[in-house]
Structure formats: C-alpha cells, structure tokens
Specification:
4 helices; 76 residues; 434 Repressor (Amino-terminal Domain)
Length: 76
C-alpha cells in the first residue's frame, strides 16, 4: 500500500514503468485529472487510491507468476 504523503501518481508511474498518460488510460480518467492529482491541485479520491493499490497487487501477481513459471520451466 502507498502512504498518503507520497506523490502517488509519480511513484506509481515510476514503479510500474508507465507514463502518466498510460496510467490515466488504465484508470479511465483524463490526463488533466491525473496531472492535477500529481501536482496536488486536487486531492486524489479514495477510490482512485484503492485502484492504484490494485495495480500494485496485479504487478506483484504477474511477477510471482513469471517467477514460478521460469523456475518450473512451464508456461502458466
């Protein structure tokens, strides 16, 4: 989970290796909304924070799946 004091948008984009435009598309918001969240112009809604947490969980799942697949030499 992400702490409220961090810049969630920038941290998420950096850690997931995506642009803010890509994150906006994934979340179904405009790039302007995401930019406003990023620079603190408007507060990020709790629902959006939960969505970002789910993106992290998805990434962890995919990393684990790929790791298991590679160690067992099978395609999952």
């Amino acid at each position: 989970m992400i702490e409220e004091s961090e810049n969630i948008v920038k941290k998420t984009c950096r850690e997931l290796g995506i642009s803010q435009k890509e994150l906006a598309e994934i979340m179904g918001v405009t790039t302007r909304t995401l930019t406003n969240w990023s620079n603190g112009t408007i507060e990020i809604p709790k629902l959006a924070i939960n969505y970002i947490d789910m993106l992290y969980m998805q990434q962890e799942y995919l990393n684990l799946k790929n790791s298991i697949s590679a160690s067992l030499n099978i395609k999952l």
